[in-house]
Amino acid sequence: MVFKGKSLKGIKVDHNKTTEGSKTERMIPVPAYVYISMSQHIGAPCKPLLGPGEMVRVGQLIADSDAFVSVPIHSSVSGTVEKIDGIRSATGGEDKVMVIKTDRKQDLVEGIKPPRIRSREGFVREVRASGLVGLGGAAFPTHIKFAPKNPDEVKTLIVNGAECEPFITSDYRTMIEDTDDIISGIKITMKYLDMEECFIGIESNKPDAIELIKEKLHEQGLDNIKVVTLKASYPQGAERVLVEVITGKKMAAGVLPAELGVIVSNITTIAFLGQYFRTGMPLISKRITVDGSAVRQPKNIRVPIGAMISDVIEFCGGYRGKPSKIIMGGPMMGRAIFSDNLPIVKHNNAILAFTGRQAYIEEETACINCGRCYRACPINLLPYALCKAYDKKDIERLKELDVMQCMECGSCAYVCPARKPLGFTNKIGKQLVKEASANDR
Amino acid sequence: MIGNMKNKNNLKLIVSASPHLVSGLNTQKIMLYVVIALMPSLVASTWIFGFRAFALTVFCVAACMIFEYIFNLIAKKPQTTKDLSAVVTGILLAFNLPVSLPYWIAAVGCFIAIIIVKQLFGGIGKNIVNPAITARVVLLVSFPAAMTTWQATRFAGDAVSGATPLGMIKEGLEVPSNMDLFLGNVGGSMGEVSALALLIGFAFLLFKKVVSPLIPICYLAVVFFFALAAGEDPLFHIFAGGVMLGALFMATDYVTTPVLPPGQIIFGLGCGFITMVIRIWGAYPEGVSFSILLMNILVPHIDRLCDHIIFKVKTVKKKSRSTKKTVMNNIKEGTK
After folding, report:
1. Using a CB-CB distance cutoff of 8 angstroms, which residues of chain A are in contact with residue B30?
2. Which of A439, B5, B198, B199 shows the greatest Cβ crowding within 10 Å of its Cβ?
3. ipTM value
4. A109 within domain boundaries
5. Chain B residue closest to A166 (CA)?
6. Does residue A137 share a domain with residue A241?
C-alpha cells in the first residue's frame, strides 16, 4: 500500500526442481483397490451412481450431482464396486468414497469419442461432462469459470504456467510433453468463449518450455496467443499476482478475474481440455511429481485417480528412511497429511515426503520487528501486526489490517527469522473475522 | 468408515500449517551478521586506542551474556542467549564508552542494558528503547567524569588526554581535519571514532540485506543540511562524535525503530534534528544518544501515524469488499 509496484517483487525461494528432467512415466500399475472420493472439487459432493457389486469400466460415469457447483466423477479403472464408505479426508473431515476392486484389465467403457460441439453452451456442457476442475490445486469447477456473468466483457484468457512452488515439475512436464494439447486447448477455449487474446505466463526458470511453446505458436501462425516470461519468484503463480503482472489490473480478494475481463486457467487444465476434445476421455488420471528427501526415486508419473498415496510411493521405490512429513501439493501452500492412506484426487499435482531435518521447522522465537514479512507480502499486508492482533484476538484490528485480503501464500512465514507461523495466524485470523461477522448477522 | 488414520508402515507424520519450507535466515544469523559488521570498528578502535579497547569490548560482551543467562535462569524463562542479541548489545555498549572507563562501571552499564532495559520489558523484541543507548545515557549522567575522560589516540604523540572534536568546538579550540575524523585519529568513544570502519561494516549489512539504508540516509541528511543552515562545516558534523555509529548501527535496530518506510523516514529525520539541536544549542557537546533514545520512545506514535497513512488507502479498498459480497451471494444463489 505504501510503495506501489513493490508487490510484484515476490520472494526468492529455492526451486529444488530436481525432477525437471524426469520424463513422465506411463501409468503406474493398477493397484488392487482404488478409492475414488466423491468430493474432488469445491462445491457439493457427488452422489454415487453405482452400488456395491456393480461392474465398472474405465471412463465410466460413476458419480454426479444436480448441484450447480459440482463436477461429475469417472472411474479410472475397470472392476467391481466393493462398497461405498466413509474416509477421513486430508482436511480432517469425512468424505464419501467409492471403493473399487480392480480386475486389472482396464477395459474401456463404450462410447468414448471426441465430443462434437457447435455452441458456447455445448462447450461449457462438455467441459462439465469431462469432469474437469482447476488442476492447479484449487479444484474449482472449470465449467463455472467458463460461464461468467459478463460473457461479453471477458476477452482475455490467461494460462497459468508459472509453477512457482518449489519441487513441483508436473506443469513443466505437461508443457514439454503435451505442447500440442495445450495449444489446441487454448484454441478451442478461445473459439467457443469468444475471446480475443491469450497470455501464457511461464516463469523464466523454464526457458526450454517457453522456447518450445513460442516455436509451436509461431509455426501455426497464432499471434493472438503470447507467451509472457515471468520472473522466477514466489508467488508469481498466485491468481491475483498473475493477473496484475499480465494485465496491470489490481485484483482484491473475492474479486473474480472475470470482473476484470479475464479468465485464468492452469496450464494443465488447458492441456486436459485439448486432450479431451481430441480423444473424449474424461479426467481419470493425473500427472504427479513425487519428490522429497524421503522418496527413493523422485520422478513424474501418471497416476489413476483414487490410487492410494502409499501405492504411488511404493512405485517410486518406497521410502528412503522414515518420512516425518508428507505433503499433498507444494511445500509453500500444500497440505501436510496425517497418513499415506489417502487417495489421489483430481487436483493433486505433487506428493512430497520429507525426512527429519527438512520436515522440522525450528522453534518459534520472539518477533524482532524486522519487517521482512511486510516486505515479502505480495499484497502489502502487515503480517507481524496481524499476528499481534491475532494473539490478542482483536477482531476489529484484524479487520482494520485487512486480514481478509490474505491469500495464504505463506511468503511471510517463509522469510520470518523468528519462525513465527504467520501464514497460520493469518488463516485463523480470517476464520475469527468470518465467525464474528456471522455472529453479527 | 475406512480406518485410514493409521499408516501402513506405522509412520508418525507431522501435520502442520503451510508453508513447510522456511528461508535459511533466522534471528541468530541476523545478529551474527551485525556482529561481523561491527568487527572492522573493533579492529580500528583496538589499533587506535590499544589493547584495552579490545579487552573492554570482550568484557562487555561477556557481562551481557552472563546477565541474560542468569536472568533467564532466575525468571525460569527459556534461554535466549543463543540468539546472540546480547553480544550485539555488549559490543554496541562498549563502542559507546571511553576506553579508559573502569571495568566495574562498564559492568553497571551492561546490567542496565540487559536486565533493566531488555529483560524486564520481556526480553528480545519487547524492549521499547535501545539497551546500549539507554545504558550509555544512564552512565553519562551517573558517572559524568569517568564517561568524559578521553584518552589520546596512539598518533597524538605525548599527549595523555585527548578531547573529542565536539568538545573542542564547544570550547572554541581548533578542530582536527575532516580526514582525521573520517579515519578515526581523534578522541572519543571506542567505536565512534573511525567513520571509515563503521561504513565498511554497514556496507556488509546492506550487502546482506540485513538493514535498509532509509533511516541512516534521513538521519545524515538532516545533520548535513542543519549544519549547513547553521553555518557550520556539514562534513565535520557527520564524521565527528557518534553520528556515524548512531545512524548506522543504533538507529537501525529493528526492535526499537518503525517497520514501515514512512515511519522510518520520520524516525531518521527526528533523530537528525534532535542531535543537531543539542549539538548547537544544548549544554552537552553531543546529542546522538539522547536523540535516538527520545525517538525510540516516540516509535509507537509514529507507528500509529503510519497506520493512518495506510488506512487512507483502505477506505478506497472497502468498495471491492462489497463487490466480493455480491459475487459470493451470486455463487451461493447459483448453488441453490
Report:
1. 368, 370, 417
2. B198
3. 0.84
4. no
5. B21
6. yes
